[in-house]
Design a protein that fits this description.
heterodimer, A: mainly beta, seven-stranded mixed beta sheet, B: five-stranded mixed beta sheet, four-stranded antiparallel beta sheet
Amino acid sequence: KAGVTQTPRYLIKTRGQQVTLSCSPISGHRSVSWYQQTPGQGLQFLFEYFSETQRNKGNFPGRFSGRQFSNSRSEMNVSTLELGDSALYLCASSFQGGRAEAFFGQGTRLTVV
Amino acid sequence: LAKTTQPISMDSYEGQEVNITCSHNNIATNDYITWYQQFPSQGPRFIIQGYKTKVTNEVASLFIPADRKSSTLSLPRVSLSDTAVYYCLVGDGGTGTASKLTFGTGTRLQVTL
């Protein structure tokens, strides 16, 4: 079956702009989580959506938001981009969340200039 | 969530068995131990998960002593393609709970000829 698909793969934005990243989970998976990975901070949890509801949230400012649609596809939005938002953004899907095996996409590499 | 401690890096020759130990002294009764593998510029990939004693699958074994304060990921006969970062995660994540994977710094395994 198809894996987790993230689009776009690469993105360059200017400071102050906003960006929307997309994630299509594995068919049948209802949990979608987002992570930010940087060399300095490593992999950090942003938030998780399950059946269109945000079920958990990490320690990120309100500029980071997300949503999930009825088909489980998810989008992540970052407003007023800062240079420090440059990172690899990863999406993971699992059947039910919790400790269930999470399947990650290849990520979106965001560069803020 | 229980904090985990792993070696920052390890080196191995191709064909050897590699054992990566993770310390999690504050593991809770309901916590499971999960290992993920990550290649550069890719999302992490689930390797194995266990609660106690020994778990084995087609790629690795996970050894968990009776006190569960540590665990060891064993990779038999590694190859160059096993060069990656390996993360040990500890959490309960019971059925229906929110997914929030907490990644530590991981162990960077370098396999050479």
